[in-house]
Write a structure and sequence with these properties.
CATH architecture of the largest domain: 3-Layer(aba) Sandwich
CATH topology of the largest domain: Rossmann fold
Order of helices and strands: HEHEHEHEHHEHEEHEHEHEHEHEHHH
Radius of gyration: 22 Å
Number of domains: 2
Strand order of the largest sheet: 2-1-3-4-5-6
CATH superfamily of the largest domain: Glycogen Phosphorylase B
Largest sheet: 6 strands, parallel
Shape: globular
CATH class of the largest domain: Alpha Beta
Distance between the termini: 18 Å
Number of helices: 15
C-alpha cells in the first residue's frame, strides 16, 4: 500500500505547445511538461499545432485517445479566444474523472473574466486546484469566489549566466512580442528622448512579430533612430544570453502583464530592470530594490529612471544582485516541491474518494 500511495501522478499538460516551430516562444506549459518528464513522470503534452482550430481538434482527439493514461490534467488557462479550448478540455477531464489543475496565465485574464463572468465561473468551477503565478491573478479570481495557490513561473536558472552589473551605460534591451499590448513604440519614444541627453544611447529589440514590427520600425525611422535601434528578430535562449551580455539595462513597456518571464530572465542575467507598473508587476518587483517602476506609457518617467541608473552605480549593483535572488525563486529546485506536493495531495484525495464510493 505505501508504494501505491507514492506512485507518481500521470500528467497531461494542455495548452499551446508550439515552441518546436521556429520563432515561437516556449510557454510555461511546455517548460513544466519537459521538466516533469525529465523527473521521471509520465507526461503527455498537447498541442503543438499553430492553428487554434487545429489545436482544438488535436487536443480533443488526444484527450479521448489517451484518457486512460492521465490522472491529472494540467490546463493552461489564458482566457480570450483560447478559452473555448480550455472549456472543452476541462469538460473532457471531468468526463473521465481526472483531477484538474488550472494554471492561470496572462495579464488579460482579469479583464476577460469581467466581460464573461458566467462563462468564467462555469469553467473554473471544474478545477480541483487553481494555480496562479502571482498574487495579482489570485486576487482577480478571488472576486469570483475562487482561491488560487500562488506558485511562481519557472525558469531553468542554471541556463542564465549571471553578470553582476556595477555600472550602467544607456545600452537598452527590450524583449517581448511585437503587438500593441506590449507597447513596443514606447521603447522607441524613450530612446529618442534619451538620446537628447545621452547621445550614445542604444536599444536592441527582440521578439516574435505579431503583425506590429513593421510599424515600430517605421516609427524608429521617422524619429531618425536607424543607427540607434537594432531589431534582432525572435530570440532563442542563446540569442537572449548574447543580447543581455551586450546590454546594461532591461526595459519593459507593457500595458498589460501578469508575471512576465522575460523580466525574470533579465533579472536572472543581472540586468537592472525599468518597467511599467501594470498588472502583476508590482507584486513581482519592488521599486528601488529589484527594479525601477514607472507609470504605464510614461516616456518621461522611464527616461528619468534610466538616467538615474546611469548616474548611480550603487543602485545598479543593488538591482543586479537582488534581481538574481528574485529570479532564483523561480528555479525548478524551488518550484518542483510545491507542485509535487499539490499533485500528491490530489492523488491521495482522489483515492480516498474512490475508496468511499466503493463501500
Amino acid at each position: 500500500m505505501p508504494n501505491v500511495e507514492r506512485k507518481k501522478a500521470r500528467l497531461c499538460f494542455v495548452g499551446p505547445m508550439v515552441a518546436r516551430h521556429p520563432g515561437h516562444v516556449t510557454t510555461q506549459g511546455e517548460i513544466l511538461a519537459g521538466l516533469f518528464r525529465s523527473s521521471g513522470y509520465s507526461v503527455i503534452s498537447v498541442s503543438d499545432c499553430r492553428n487554434r482550430y487545429m489545436r482544438l481538434l488535436d487536443i480533443i482527439f488526444t484527450l479521448f485517445r489517451r484518457c486512460r493514461s492521465v490522472d491529472i490534467q494540467c490546463l493552461q488557462v489564458f482566457g480570450g479566444p483560447s478559452f473555448v479550448i480550455e472549456d472543452v478540455a476541462s469538460w473532457i477531464a471531468r468526463l473521465f474523472n481526472q483531477r484538474i489543475v488550472m494554471f492561470m496565465r496572462g495579464g488579460a485574464m482579469p479583464e476577460f473574466m469581467a466581460r464573461h463572468p458566467r462563462w468564467s465561473r462555469r469553467v473554473l468551477k471544474r478545477a480541483d486546484v487553481i494555480v496562479a503565478p502571482s498574487e495579482y491573478l489570485a486576487r482577480a479570481i478571488a472576486k469570483y469566489g475562487f482561491r488560487a495557490e500562488v506558485i511562481p513561473n519557472v525558469i531553468d536558472i542554471s541556463e542564465y549566466n549571471y553578470q553582476h552589473r556595477k555600472t550602467a551605460r544607456p545600452k537598452l534591451l527590450w524583449m517581448r512580442a511585437f503587438q500593441p499590448i506590449y507597447n513596443p513604440e514606447m521603447a522607441i519614444r524613450v530612446v529618442a528622448q534619451l538620446r537628447n541627453v545621452e547621445p550614445d544611447a542604444e536599444l536592441a529589440m527582440g521578439g516574435q512579430d505579431k503583425g506590429f514590427e513593421a510599424d515600430v520600425k517605421q516609427r524608429a525611422k521617422n524619429l531618425g533612430l536607424n543607427g540607434s535601434v537594432r531589431f534582432t528578430g525572435f530570440l532563442n535562449l542563446q540569442g537572449k544570453l548574447h543580447e543581455a551580455s551586450a546590454a546594461d539595462i532591461f526595459i519593459n513597456t507593457n500595458h498589460i502583464d501578469n508575471t512576465p518571464v522575460g523580466v525574470i530572465e533579465a533579472c536572472a542575467m543581472g540586468l537592472p530592470v525599468v518597467t511599467t507598473a501594470v498588472g502583476g508587476i508590482s507584486d513581482l518587483l519592488t521599486h528601488g530594490e529589484t527594479a525601477l517602476l514607472v507609470p504605464d506609457d510614461d516616456d518621461e518617467a522611464m527616461v528619468k529612471a534610466i538616467r538615474r541608473l546611469v548616474a548611480d552605480p550603487e543602485l545598479v549593483s543593488r538591482l543586479s544582485v537582488n534581481g538574481r535572488r528574485l529570479a532564483e525563486r523561480s528555479s525548478w529546485q524551488r518550484v518542483k516541491p510545491q507542485l509535487e506536493k499539490l499533485f500528491e495531495q490530489l492523488m491521495l484525495n482522489h483515492r480516498a474518494t474512490y475508496a468511499v464510493e466503493k463501500l
